[in-house]
Amino acid sequence: MNCYHCGDKISGPVVLHDNHSFCCHGCQSVYMLLAQNQMCSFYDNSERELSKTPQIEKYSHLDNNQVADQYIQFRSSEKNIIQLRSPFIQCASCVYLLEKLHLLQPGILESRVNFSQQSIVIQYNPKVISLRQLIEWLTYIDMNPC
User: Fold this and answer.
1) Where are the alpha helices (DSSP H) in 89-142?
2) Around 117, how many Cα atoms within 13 Å sit in the side-chain half-sphere?
3) Which one-letter DSSP state was computed for residue 37?
4) CA-based R_g, the chain, Å
5) DSSP string covering 45-91
6) pLDDT tens track of the chain, all 146 residues?
């Protein structure tokens, strides 16, 4: 059985919601946010399959502190801040979802979207999630649900 949101094979306990099976509460939460905002067409997109594949090597360079420092605007032991630009931020539902990242992923402290600049500022705890893990996760959940 595969997770309705991410498509991964469910190897542990199944989380059931709305007659769908999820591999974890994180995937269930993303589904619920999308459903609450009438964005479930996300699950109809066959192109989504391409974005689900973890791209481990693509972001491995972010493990290098010198490279990561080019992206991190502020760094401390408890909080790092990055700003990302994304042409996929196109509607209020995108903003809503992206500003709720802290509810979906441990380690994300806050996320704020600037709609007109199509950018997002993310504060995260580097003791909980690394820059690489954060970027891989954002890619994994597909920042283009619209």
Assistant:
1) 92-98, 101-104, 131-141
2) 9
3) T
4) 15
5) -TTHHHHHS--TGGGGGGGSHHHHTTTEEEE-SS-EEEEEE-TT--S
6) 888 877 778 988 999 999 999 887 777 877 887 777 666 766 665 444 434 444 556 788 899 999 999 999 999 999 999 999 877 676 777 788 888 899 888 899 999 999 889 899 999 999 999 999 998 888 765 544 43
Q: Are 33 and 55 in contact (CB under 8 A)?
A: no
Residues in the chain: 146
Q: Which of 115, 143, 123 is nearest to 75 (CA)?
A: 123
Q: How far apart are the C-alpha atoms of 66 and 89, rounded to whole Å?
A: 29
Comparing CA positions, the residue from 71, 62, 48 lying closest to residue 140 is 48
Token readout for 21 is: 């099976």
Per DSSP, the three-state class of 114 is strand
pTM of the model: 0.62
